[in-house]
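Sample intake sheet
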Amino acid sequence: MEKAKLPLRKMKQTQDTFATSAGSYRENPLWIARIMGHRDPGMAIEVYSRYVENFMGEHDGANLDAVCVNRGSREG
């Protein structure tokens, strides 16, 4: 972050960015909730669906993995 001259972010902001990004890659809200430690997808859907047009995805992390880890293109 220092090398890029970006301000440090609070962990909460990072979590929000993850959830929104995962939703935009059509990841399953159940999967997002599980990864974030939530008991059910209700909070993820309620909070993050306002930022993502079609938050109700069907993937289990594969799309986000392809983009973030493998640098592939996104599906669907």
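Comment: Helices lie at 11-24, 29-36, 42-48, 62-68. The radius of gyration is 13 Å.
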